[in-house]
Amino acid sequence: MKPLSILTVDDQALFREGLTLVLNKLYPNAKVRQASSGVEAFDQMRHHRFDLLLLDIGMPGMNGMEVAKQVMLDHPDTRIIILTQYNGEAMITHLVQAGVHGFLLKNSESQEIKKAVETVLAGQQYITTMIHPSILKEEKVSNAPSVRFSKREADILMYLKLGKSSKEIAERLSLKENTINSYREDMLRKTQTSNVAELISYAYKNGVLG
After folding, report:
1. Are 31 and 73 part of one and the same domain?
2. What pLDDT sits at residue 139?
3. 5, 59, 112, 113: which has the highest count of C-beta atoms within 10 A?
4. pTM of the predicted model, to two decimals?
């Protein structure tokens, strides 16, 4: 029997490496590879075939929602489990309807990870019990979240989530402070949010952060 092949995709190295250790312990014969971004994930998939993707939803640049949709088009035999630290219904409902195979919260224990992996590999859908089951009963929505963020906006959102000021973000991204302020105001305007806290909440709910 061919060894199980798994790709873990998360921009946080500590979480990604920890998850890889858990998977190696659960499946000693599996081949587990890592990617730190959507771009790196697709590079890996050009060279290797994967049975399963464990995919972080909130990554700068190409987020997990975009990666999942493209993988389902290009690699329909690959099963996808989304990893998130936020159980927002808007994002989860949309991805369930799009055909993603499973959802786990990032604080899931190893036995639930094993249950999720084996469920989706058996051709069924797995939704963590920590996500309210009513999501699965929602009527199909025709429109995905309409606001899209550029890579630069997603990077700024990640720093805003960490509580960084415009000056600090500008220094890290080698931009002017006024430029960061302009990006922030534009994101507030197009998401129809009134402050950074609401903007971050919107980003979580719609899969930009996770």
Report:
1. yes
2. 46
3. 59
4. 0.68
